[in-house]
Recover the amino acids of this structure.
């Protein structure tokens, strides 16, 4: 039987694999500029996946919680651009604020830093 901690980790990995597949599909079809509504929809989807990942974190020890939102937002910034990433960052940051707790501001800072790092990678990749 799979323990609760391992199941949480498997759920996070499965969600990341699903998102990687979606990124591959989106990036593979990406030729030129995408319509604004498509980019907004991408942001809403990534934000919803980010919230889902936050709802099933992997608790390593009391007070030490891991989830894949930072990876998700960094990859979104790298491959999808600023509109979807900012939408996803806003959704996950708002959800983290609603969750509350001692790590609220740290969590929001990680959300912002991860998305901004992904966007910086995209800018750097474009100039190479």
């Amino acid at each position: 039987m799979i323990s609760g901690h391992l199941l949480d980790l498997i759920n996070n990995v499965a969600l990341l694999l699903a998102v990687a597949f979606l990124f591959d599909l989106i990036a593979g079809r990406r030729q030129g500029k995408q319509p604004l509504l498509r980019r907004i929809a991408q942001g809403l989807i990534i934000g919803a996946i980010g919230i889902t990942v936050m709802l099933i974190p992997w608790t390593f020890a009391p007070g030490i919680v891991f989830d894949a939102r930072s990876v998700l937002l960094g990859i979104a910034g790298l491959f999808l651009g600023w509109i979807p990433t900012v939408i996803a960052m806003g959704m996950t940051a708002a959800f983290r604020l609603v969750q509350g707790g001692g790590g609220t501001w740290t969590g929001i800072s990680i959300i912002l830093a991860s998305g901004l790092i992904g966007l910086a990678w995209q800018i750097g990749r474009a100039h190479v």
The beta strands are 58-61, 64-66. Residues 4-126 form one domain. The CA atoms of residues 14 and 94 lie 24 Å apart.
